[in-house]
Design brief:
Elements lengths: L4 H15 L5 H24 L2 H7 L3 H26 L6 H10 L7 H9 L4 H27 L8 H31 L1 H26 L7 H28 L4 H11 L4 H12 L3 H4 L1 H22 L2 H14 L1
Helix pairs in contact: 1-9, 2-8, 2-9, 4-5, 4-7, 4-10, 4-11, 5-14, 6-7, 6-11, 6-14, 7-11, 9-12, 10-11, 10-14
Length: 328
């Protein structure tokens, strides 16, 4: 059962914010740095996404539409039902909003590819599906949050729209435009730039949780509430894993495509969700991102087990056996 080292870094950052929260002028400096970090993060997203690969992937449009429907239709409907049905008797309003926000976040790219590869599924489809989901999420996640979360994120105003465009979409488009000059550099230094991503996210987390400490929001989270949240997320993940696998089968997809749909359609991106929550929730971001952080680790642990079992499927073993002579 893998424990993501990045989750440990996130927990350490939360602990630092609890012991030494940024306040006053330090909070202003940290907030400005977090805004710059979010812009850098989405600039790198844009610089990494190959437009040619995305266009080539359109040929498998039924699979991508299925993943997008799971991510931005089925997930939000389940999240809306859970948030409205469990608030306030099981979850606080803030945790319920965070749970719903979790359901609006785009899918992952790296881990979806990794698990699809382990399970011997359609890796190219997983690459394109994750990329399309991330790209669509830049627009759809803020729109869905404004529509479904209402007053929690301040409503859908011209000011909120401008902030989203300025902090998320403009840097992403700038990264796309700069690809022709920096794609080689980004490709050669992918590992080093991944640390830039992580430091940016940790800074966003520190700022959000510092503000939560200063405002005293953490007294609302009790061990019982956390246990309830974990239980709800476990049920949510189980439902999506079942729906993506058996639903894809009913839609006529083959085994390899079903693997890609299951892993890309049931997962949520911590890297994309945290910066968006910082922009959308402001002072309430610390509680809003807690469900996403917990779900991220849960999905990694569960999907790792499923991927290993999928790799032992008779169809996967047969495909691997027939592919071996070709490689030799």
């Amino acid at each position: 059962m893998p424990v993501d080292p990045f989750i440990l870094a996130l927990l350490a950052t939360v602990g630092l914010a609890a012991l030494l929260p940024a306040a006053g002028q330090a909070a202003d400096v940290a907030g400005g740095a977090a805004t710059a970090a979010i812009a850098l993060l989405f600039f790198l997203y844009g610089a990494r996404l190959s437009t040619r690969d995305a266009l080539d992937g359109l040929r498998h449009w039924r699979l991508h539409l299925t993943v997008l429907a799971c991510t931005f239709v089925v997930f939000p409907l389940l999240g809306l039902a859970a948030a409205e049905g469990l608030e306030p008797w099981l979850l606080t309003p803030q945790l319920a909003s965070g749970l719903l926000f979790l359901c609006l976040v785009p899918s992952t790219v790296q881990s979806s590819i990794a698990f699809t590869s382990i399970a011997r599924g359609n890796v190219p489809a997983a690459i394109c599906a994750g990329s399309f989901s991330s790209l669509a999420g830049i627009v759809l996640t803020p729109l869905l949050a404004a529509l479904l979360l209402g007053g929690t994120v301040g409503g859908f105003s011209a000011d909120s729209l401008l902030r989203i465009v300025a902090q998320l979409l403009v840097p992403f488009l700038a990264g796309q435009l700069a690809r022709r000059w920096i794609a080689g550099f980004v490709g050669r230094h992918r590992k080093a730039l991944s640390y830039v991503d992580r430091v940016s996210i940790l800074l966003v987390v520190y700022t959000a949780f510092s503000e939560g400490m200063v405002r005293g929001v953490w007294h609302q989270v009790t061990p019982a509430r956390l246990a309830a949240l974990l239980g709800v997320e476990a049920v949510l993940l189980a439902l999506m894993l079942a729906l993506t696998w058996y639903g894809a089968g009913r839609l006529g997809f083959g085994r390899d495509d079903r693997v890609a749909i299951q892993f890309a359609g049931s997962k949520k991106s911590l890297a994309a969700g945290l910066p968006m929550a910082s922009v959308l929730f402001g002072a309430q971001a610390s509680l809003a991102v807690l469900p996403l952080m917990l779900f991220h680790q849960m999905q990694l642990m569960v999907c790792a087990v499923i991927a290993r079992r999928r790799a032992r499927d008779p169809e996967a073993a047969e495909a691997a056996g027939t592919a071996a002579p070709n490689v030799a």
